[in-house]
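Treating backbone geometry as a discrete language has practical consequences that deserve illustration. The amino acid sequence and the backbone structure tokens for this protein are reproduced below.
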Amino acid sequence: MLGIIVAAGKAVRLENKCKSLIRVGGKPIIEYIIQNMLPLVNKIIIIQHGNEIEKAIGNDYLNIPIIYVQQKRRKGIAHAIYQCKREVEEDMIIILGDIIYNGDLIDMKENFKESKAEFCFGVQRIKDKNLIKKSYGITNDIPMKVIEKPLDSDLKNIKDYLGLGIYMATPKLFDYIKQTKINERTKEIEFTDTINVIPSEKCAMRILDGFYVNINTKEDLKSCEEFI
């Protein structure tokens, strides 16, 4: 399996730094992501904007090779992932570069292979649906749909699952990204829109346990430091 880290984002609310290089507990966020991927992958691709991450991390990590792909213009997560197309010939795990997750992903990998799905996304069951407004949610509809940063009016039709930035996919994913239209609201190619392009019978959902936080604010950083 190949690892992909989407790390081209900038922390607008955290001094405009490269989000993946923000330090938590003495090391950058991206290092936690790499360490979580190591038991699963034989190579890692890091999608960056500029070369800050390459300078900080280098071309291998504990003998796992790392290659870098540029997203020259920030046009959405799906667009960023598509920049890797030439490098991918096998199943992949994709993790967004601004999250910290300390759970075990080995079971997710095994279940993904057994399911014969083309795509799988990780979620966590939550009690407070308001948390979903910072990420994405899954509707109660059949077939289900994914909603990016749902509004209060959306929450009554959304399951109590928080969408995480953790995915597994076959190379077929690039065909679905190619079919994804530019989002009218953000003017970007949104990955949640890509998920909605994938046929429901080819898409699986996996409930993940463990500590998780999406780093956006100083409060998010503080919650991580308290845990780590």
